[in-house]
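Translate sequence into structure tokens.
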Amino acid sequence: MSNGILERHLMHNCSRELCGLISLSINEAYRFLDDLIKTTPLLQKPELKKSYGYIRSGLVDVAIKEVFSKGNLRHKIADKSTSKYRNGYTYLMIEVKGGIITPAKVNRSYEFPRPAKNRTYNSLKNRQMNLFSNPEDINEKYDEKNPPYMIITYGGSDFKLEFINLGLPREDASGWIDLLDITKVPSLIVNKNEIVNELNLSFTREAERLIEESGRDGEFEVI
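Result follows.
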């Protein structure tokens, strides 16, 4: 349950669009994945089920890039690598006013993502966040020039989306300072239907590439 720290920070230091864009992105990625599995005989083979997580992560990345590009929120998105291997895992780093954000899949709603160097390093940005008890203190320390680090966590059972959260990790990346449920936050984008149609085209192209890659020999690490 949220203690209000993150909600106050979002209200005072971030765009009103932010949570809606995140929610729309991940909801659409899961919606397409569900349709893809149902309509693609290859993915219904038992040996291909292990690739679902890899495909899901790719679709989430595409959705975030596409949806954020259609909104009015100023942002920068970069793909960061955590592996020296060609097919190794990469993660998105999203920079917006009031926050530096990365996404991560987890199994349960309040779970903290498993250890990863990028999360451990970035969590140091939140050194003072959990010491503040009122918005004025937070605003004095954290603003667009000195943003805290946030993590989008999402997931559910059997590759069905059940939750999307935005959280402030502790400095030592061992748990949450605060965690906010944004699963059903509405998007402020006016032309949502048009964006969903464009997303479907991007998803289709990316899914074809990911299915081809997942059919090759090799292991894919999703963190």
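Note: The CA atoms of residues 170 and 177 lie 5 Å apart.
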